[in-house]
Design a protein that fits this description.
Blueprint (H helix, E strand, L loop, with lengths): L2 H21 L18 E3 L3 E4 L7 E6 L6 E7 L5 E5 L6 E4 L5 E12 L2 E12 L23 H9 L5 H15 L1 E2 L1 H6 L8 H7 L1 E2 L1 H14 L4 E8 L2 E10 L3 E3 L2 E4 L4 E3 L2 H6 L4 H7 L5 E6 L1
Parallel strand pairs: 9-10
Antiparallel strand pairs: 1-2, 2-3, 3-6, 4-5, 4-7, 7-8, 11-12, 11-16, 12-13, 14-15
Length: 297
């Protein structure tokens, strides 16, 4: 083989390898939205950094580099209940959504003094004008923490590959979750305040608590470009979590992911799975008055 033929063969082989690698990337993985702290707009001090470079996309990123091991973040908007989060003390950014739409938000970071007492380390007000009202519910955040490399993404691809629209995607993901994830009674009995779902771990163990169900489903649907809210509130007198989705045809379908042939019904994935889709459970979760929203993530 002469030099020209060798170069041509090598080029063809390289193209084949590149094409094969690209073909191995799932469609949604290539399009999973990735929060970034670009440093274009930041606020802070020697211990706290708030990266507000992408607030128009519905999120802010916060990191703490001080020495206190217990840190909290509060995000509030006038007239709306304050959202409180734990923040890691390892110096890594975490993502927090602007769930309440356009307006002025105040972001506060607190350091623990003792017991349940905290002192404010930094505070900053930011004016948020979203590029789309749906943006906060398409990106990953602290409560539904996934990425293009997460195991939930190819599974979501497989479950929705034949879906004709958002509602079909919701049905595919929902049915898999309630049929394959079991309620973790041991974790429910021992879980501590500040628990955060690890969606890939839930997927691997195939069990979790209510928060895990909602986070898993939210992550898979967002990976498939379906705007999804992870909702925390009360089911009767019990603190609980469920989801809401947005469709082009219907807009926000609040707390509803089940269609009985005539109307959408409230379908909380934890109760549906734990109740094995019994008639009593289906009736209960189909009654919106049984659910009261407190926070949306």
């Amino acid at each position: 083989m002469n030099g020209k033929s060798l170069r041509t063969a090598c080029l063809l082989l390289l193209l084949l390898v590149l094409f094969s690698c690209r073909a191995g990337i799932s469609a949604s993985a290539a399009n999973v939205r990735t929060p970034t702290a670009s440093g274009a707009v930041t606020y802070g001090n020697s211990r706290v950094t708030i990266d507000a470079s992408n607030i128009s996309e519905g999120y802010v990123m916060v990191k703490y580099t001080g020495s206190n091991p217990k840190i909290k973040v509060q995000i509030s908007k006038d007239g709306v209940e304050t959202y409180t989060y734990n923040l890691n003390s390892s110096g890594n950014y975490e993502v927090f959504p602007f769930s309440e739409g356009n307006g002025t938000y105040t972001i506060k970071v607190f350091e623990n003094i003792s017991g349940n007492q905290y002192s404010q380390a930094f505070s900053q007000a930011v004016s948020v004008q979203l590029s789309s009202e749906l943006s906060p519910f398409l990106y990953p955040n602290q409560f539904c923490n996934f990425s293009a490399s997460s195991a939930v993404v190819p599974l979501a691809d497989e479950l929705t590959k034949d879906a004709a629209d958002e509602l079909a995607k919701v049905a595919g993901v929902y049915n898999w979750v309630v049929d394959n994830i079991s309620y973790d009674t041991n974790l429910a009995a021992t879980v501590s305040s500040g628990y955060l779902p690890d969606v890939d771990s839930v997927l691997a163990k195939k069990k979790g608590i209510c928060f895990d169900y909602a986070a898993l489903m939210t992550s898979m649907l967002r990976a498939e470009d379906v705007p999804t809210k992870l909702v925390v509130g009360y089911s009767g007198s019990v603190y609980h979590a469920w989801i809401s989705v947005y469709t082009k045809a219907s807009g926000w379908v609040d707390n509803v992911i089940y269609f009985d042939g005539n109307a959408w019904k409230l379908m909380d994935p934890t109760f549906a799975s734990n109740g094995k889709r019994s008639a009593a459970i289906m009736d209960y979760i189909g009654n919106g008055s049984n659910y009261r929203t407190r926070f949306s993530y």
